[in-house]
Amino acid sequence: MDAISEVLPIDSDRRVEMEVWFVFSAKTLVDQSLRSVGEKTYQNMHQGLYRVLEFLYSQHLLKKDIDLEMEANRLHPLVDGMASHHLLYPSIYTYEKMIATLRYHLKTLWNGDDLNESTSS
After folding, report:
1. In the chain, which stretches have pLDDT less than 70?
2. Which of 51, 64, 84, 108 has its CA 20 to 30 A from that of 78?
């Protein structure tokens, strides 16, 4: 869970990084010269999340019948959305809600062991 939390605005440094990414992403909508950088960054994040899931799977922490690529496809927009909501509405979509939502989602992938014992927040 810590590896996934790295891409969430859970502290002031990550919040600043997310603000920069948010503004940059908006700029790619109107400046095509930035599009390739944005796409590369998107692909790198997707691959990073896939590798986290792949590692958890290799450690027998995830359900045996999951599709890792499909789970990365679900996790990526979930993480992006949580980060955006927390960035825009931190008093409503709090850090605690963000982490609880991530934990809830990961429980759907877990192999049955207690998620709290296998990861830290």
Report:
1. 113-121
2. 64
